[in-house]
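Note to self: keep these together.
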Amino acid sequence: MGVEEKLAVLDHIYRVYEGFIAEYETACRKGCARCCTRNVTLTTLEAYALSVRLVDEGRADFFEKLRGAIDLPRFIPRVTTNALAEICIRGEDPPEEASDPDWGACPFLEEGECPVYAVRPYGCRCMVSALRCDDTGFAEMDPFIVTVNNVVLQYLEHVDRDGYSGNLTDLLLFFASADNRRRYRAGSLGPPPEGLIRNRPIRALMVPPRHRQKMLSFIESLQKVPS
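Structure:
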């Protein structure tokens, strides 16, 4: 699958999720940015789409913002979502990973608002809450939404299974390089550099028994990619 086809699938997945989450009442509003931390992760496909938009709009200053935050603590994943599913299937314990929302806000955030909101990655889109996070200190999320979020993460990784996953800062700085963008378009990335991890295909979906029947229609919608 070429990059343009992958981008079309990405847009489709975003639209399916937006339709799904619109059925839930959430407290998320413009200016609510407690979940906009340095810990957002994404795939190379999402990072490529965002980096191309920044380049096309002449916003190289955004890459400089990220370089200015490169020494600050952030969540750097050790396993991808699909790798985690495989670990669970084998009955093994996943590796411990350090993550703290108090490490600070996303480097892109400007006065509590996201200047790249239209092309934000799924890691941002799926952070919804039934109650205001400022009031509770955490996101209040329906268990079925959590299941859907995990499945979408698995699909995004599967579509981009020849790419990488990692922290937003690291992947966008990777794509600040025109050569790396070219290599991604050509399908010739090679082994991931330090701080990034190789994506994996789906071996099993992370759906608990109580949600399996309810998930069928959503999964069917995900798989109906417009030709």
